[in-house]
Records
---
Amino acid sequence: MINLQGKAPKILVIGDLMIDHYLWGTCDRISPEAPVQVINVQRESSVLGGAGNVINNLHALGAQVGVMSVVGDCEICDELKALLNDIKVNTNHLITQKNRITSKKSRIIASQQQVVRYDRESTDEISQESQTQLLNSFKNLIANYDTILLSDYGKGVLTFELTQSLIAIANENGKKVLIDPKGLDYSKYQGAYLLTPNKKEASESLATNINDDASLAYVIKKLKIDYDLKVSLITLSEQGVAIYDDELRVHPTKAREVFDVTGAGDTVLASLGFSLACGYGIDDAVKFANLAAGVVVGKIGSATATLNEIIEYESSLNKSSSDAHIKTHDEITILSAELRSKGKKIIFTNGCFDLLHAGHVRYLETAKSFGDVLILGLNSDQSVTALKGANRPIHMQSDRAYILAALEAVDYVVIFNEDTPYHLIKAIQPHILVKGGDYAGKEVVGQDIVEELKLVQFVNGKSTTKTIEKIQQGK
């Protein structure tokens, strides 16, 4: 996968903001009043939806996100702003229009199945005054952003006149505009960099059924020509994503168990915008978006995908090398917090692992058995020399890290320079610290930070020092 770690492009999202509200419960009986299920609601949650889900996805990827939209003067709007503030997205450029209701979609979920949805919203076009205010703000803000995303849910914010004006201003300023379209008439998106319709939407927009390679080629080329797009793109569900600029190509995706496709289109738009804003080409951006979408369809509800989840997913498809499991201090700090938030039990161990042998592997397999994720702190070359002497290490740190990262038991490797991993343990905050059995009765560095210390006995006769001695003795 392209390297997007540490990237923080500035991306502006404009479109229909809404709240996705969920009531989670169980169903054990049918109502005596009518032939309907009785749901025992156990908890409820609210997340950003619509254009807000695009924002959530960008935030999860690490982008600096701005937002512009028109909202109602209602309690739902206050809730919406609170959700945006929670992820530190500025709401100063949200325009309030009287007598308008901000969209809120409530879903009742029982045993992981959606039972019913009810909506509260305004869907009429925003006023001319609101459009003018949005446009004036856009002219003042556009220089601050790398890429513009328009998320059209057909709720009235992206009118024909406003959309065309936004695209024209963006093009004048050399900014790419990516749009998740709505409806049958795509003429209001004329001049955009690309659109992200799915196969059904693209077919309906041109009244041509996509049922083979020839019809796909016809539709995707016609979309590019008719609407003056720089790149024509159609998402093909489990078949992947088709793109056309000078030639047609399809980037396939890997099938996985699909729990919920809610918001998958938002993830595609956000991940495309994120990677393009980082300076990557359209093919790399599409490959990245395919992976991101593969993550979110495995979750329930409007979901997001972090860079770490995407890397992990790619690894599960056997498309990543061991390099993907070697992290910097900053990367492992962020990743560890993410793992803890998901309830994962983190194990940490450390060592030089100069000449890898069976004793090392068995030790690491035992360590991994204590929890969910094993993070290995690897002494740097400098640190090994300080501990073992001038003739060590035998293998340089990059080689040792790569070999260790390839082991099934090891999830992540982090190289540290200090004589002890104390600062690394403090950053990771693991649940369990694992050390060799020779530490019995001794003070272990980092023991004060973790919840539990586990000592694992080494395999008799297996050690790097003894191996080196045999080599030196010619045995």
Note: The longest strand covers residues 17-30.
---
Amino acid sequence: MSLDEQVLNYPIPNDTALEPPPEWAELRGKCPVAHVKLPSGDQATLLTKYDDVKQVLADPRFTRQLSAPDAARLTAEGGGVFNSDVANIIPDSGDEHLHWRRLVGKWFTAKRMAALRPAMAKIADDLIDEMVAGGAPGDLKAGLGFPLPVYVICDMLGVPAEDRDRFSYWSDTFLNLTRYTKEEIDAAQAEFFQYMSDHVNARREQLGDDLLSELLAVGGPDEGGLSDLQILVTGMALLVAGHETTANMIGKMMGMLLADRTRWERLLADPSLIRTTVEESLRFDANSGFGLPRYLPVETEVDGTVLPKGTTVICSMAAANRDESAFEAADEMDLTRSPNAHLSFGSGAHSCLGQSLARTELQVVLEVLLRRLPTLELAVPAEELRRVEGLAVGGLSTVPVRW
């Protein structure tokens, strides 16, 4: 049976941690608009070609509100971050969405990120000190990849870093599509909501130099600011988005660079390639997770296929990033690739707000590791690296290294 006649299970199972499933190339070539069955049993449409994914992500008619009665459920339990009530509080489109992005985006400018760099490097240095003191082999994900973005986002939100273990559990319940029951998810979200509510109230009493204080200082909707609920949910969203994705990406980037150690040696010989290496790691990442779901409130056409109103579309940015029609030698990791118009941060009005933060963290990690641990290597064969299962964002469960 050909691919366009069968219904694939999605996510597509894959045994290897760093390589793409062979179905991607086949789908792009023969069936770029494919029918898939989600973990919930509901059907959706999967897009794998660069131009199609870019078109849908940039089209404001395709909403991210998966709460419509005819939208596909991602999992039998619901789908965590993609269709929680919380996701509906931040404006999704139009002028309100632009207004929200403008207010929050002030914190994510290149200038702000440059100012944060020394503090990020200091955090990375301290974490590497702890890893080295613990002796080799160590786990680069647990030792550096996970704590660094948590410390940074806690700083930005004015949240005590000692609460970071609670955040990691709360964000995992948001982002894990299979591991938790509905009761566990609801309980964790209620705790998280209460915590952020208390934190925002404390900040209102005593404004600090952090993102939430700045949003509060603008005033409410009448003064051109956000409602209390929107500020609270913005804090939750940034905490979840700001650490889990980058923590996993640090692990995967280092996994890719050390799986073929000539890549690491190339960087050691020429650290000026750090910026393009980060972009290429983002493009080359074959384990980026679920992809972005979009709901179609109107009938539309993608790549010559009519998609009826009510279709749920999954955009696989990782598959699109391996499209030979968009990237020369797409299946090779080229640390000098430039320009590199990958879709890892999405496209259009919903492109990732924190992409400058993620890029800066990834660059700082490379700078500090090249300086501190030039002899770094994987402590297990690359084939033994394992994926994190069930997470909406892909990752490696551990990255064992020695130096």
Note: The chain has 14 helices and ten strands.
